[in-house]
Design a protein that fits this description.
Helix content: 25-40%
Number of helices: 13
Mean pLDDT: 94
Radius of gyration: 19 Å
Strand order of the largest sheet: 3-2-1-4-5-6-8
Order of helices and strands: EHEEHEHEHHEHEHEHEHHHHH
Structural class: alpha/beta
Number of strands: 9
Largest sheet: 7 strands, parallel
Shape: globular
Low-confidence stretches: none
């Protein structure tokens, strides 16, 4: 059995589906009740309270560990989950980390994530670590304004990064969970091209077949919106990256190609598949 945390999100949902389609027994873990693929067991649990995972991990062979952005701000120790997995007989764990661990190693959340990576390395489990950059699915923040006003509002409209389709992260995660060749791998995951918010707007408009206007926000306006759903420190970190990406954050990683044997999907691919959210 494979346990997938964050199983109803943009990565966990396609990962759960992919594993189920490969004939794997999967337990999907999320904070709230949700629909899962046929044959998949669903468990409601909060990673901020690791004790609730003990019965879930018993009998599992592998774990995909995805932490919410606010978990490190809570009074929780995610390392307890790794220790519990090892004690329960789990043999392999794949951790969703962050590109920022290597490109911007300072800051509370990145220091905590690096410590969690080190805990995993020292756990005795077979392990792999995924370090994605920005997600294409962050464009869903714009879905309501596109539906209601045909506008995308974002800061730094002409500053781009090589954002990645979460479906590619999920496919890499599945490979790491199932294939021994990826044990000990640390994979930097990016898309195939540097793309700006203005260019993303154009891709959404092309997929819709109708015009979408781009409106540039100030940093302060953008932060005011972001802190409604994430800690202020994480909002500032994100804004720092998207306003002034460093050379490592602009680099196109070969790791998706290396693991999957194909190029990463483009943002236009993501927009086409998810265009219903913008209609």
């Amino acid at each position: 059995m494979i346990v997938v945390t964050g199983a109803t999100g943009n990565i966990g949902r396609p990962l759960t589906q992919a594993l189920a389609e490969k004939g794997q027994q999967v337990t999907a873990v999320s904070r709230r009740a949700a629909a899962v693929p046929d044959g998949v067991r669903h468990v409601v649990a909060d990673l901020a309270e690791p004790a609730g995972l003990e019965s879930v991990l018993t009998g599992a062979k592998a774990l995909f560990l995805l932490l919410s952005g606010d978990l490190h701000a809570a009074e929780a120790n995610p390392a307890d989950i790794i220790g519990m997995a090892a004690d329960s007989g789990v043999r392999r764990a794949v951790l969703l980390s962050s590109q920022g661990v290597s490109t911007r190693p300072f800051g509370t959340t990145r220091i905590a994530m690096r410590a969690l990576e080190d805990t995993l390395r020292e756990s005795g489990l077979d392990w792999a670590i995924l370090r994605p950059g920005g997600f294409a699915s962050n464009a869903l923040w714009w879905a309501e304004s596109v539906r209601t006003r045909q506008v995308v509002a974002a800061p730094f409209g002409d500053v781009g990064t090589p954002i990645i389709d979460p479906a590619d992260i999920a496919e890499v995660a599945a490979a790491c969970l199932l294939d021994d060749r990826h044990t000990g791998g640390v994979y930097e995951l990016t898309g195939p091209e540097v793309i700006t918010p203005r260019q993303q707007t154009e891709a959404i408009a092309a997929a819709l077949g109708s015009p979408v206007r781009f409106h540039e926000l100030t940093r302060e306006e953008a932060k005011a919106g972001m802190i409604q759903s994430m800690p202020a420190e994480l909002a500032d970190d994100t804004l720092d990256i998207i306003s002034s990406p460093n050379p490592a954050e602009l680099a196109i990683s070969p790791d998706v190609q290396r693991v999957l044997g194909r190029a990463p999907r483009t943002f236009a691919d993501w927009a086409t598949r998810n265009i219903a959210a913008f209609r």
